[in-house]
Design a protein that fits this description.
Layout: H1 2-20, E1 32-36, E2 48-49, E3 58-64, E4 70-78, E5 85-86, E6 92-95, E7 97-98, E8 107-109, E9 117-122, E10 128-132
């Protein structure tokens, strides 16, 4: 019985170590910002500026629609002084909760240049998102 408990303790320690030592590699050095969306417009939306970071894409790492279990999100970007452009993916449906930024499905804008401004639009006013970029 003592050997079994010792083996179980070692297995638990190893499993815990694996979980703790396995962070998402591409998230290291990325910036994450929170925002509440204003719906399907960029008017009045929170605006972020892409800085120098190892993340080249604009990803949704967490989302919450207080009106339902999912929502659609689209990224919009502009160069300083320019007009807004919606990302080529358009609206992407996402369930409420955390999203893996290593999965390209959650990238709303890819290869955004340093200095470009961006925001996130949603199908519902008041959706909340964490944007990792």
């Amino acid at each position: 019985m003592k050997k079994f408990l010792a083996a179980l303790a070692v297995a638990g320690t190893v499993a815990t170590s694996v979980v703790v030592l396995a962070p998402t590699a591409s998230a290291a050095g990325c910036v994450t910002g929170w925002m509440s969306t204003v719906g399907t417009s960029t008017q009045g939306a929170a605006v972020f500026t892409k800085g120098s970071s190892p993340c080249h894409d604009v990803n949704i790492s967490w989302s919450y629609n207080p009106q339902g279990a999912y929502s659609g999100y689209a990224g919009a970007y502009r160069r300083p002084g320019g007009s807004w452009n919606v990302g080529s993916r358009g609206y992407v449906q996402m369930d409420n909760g955390y999203h893996d930024i290593n999965n390209p499905y959650y990238a709303l804008i890819t290869d955004l240049n340093v200095g470009a401004e961006f925001t996130v639009m949603s199908r519902n006013y008041g959706d909340q998102v964490n944007v990792t970029y």
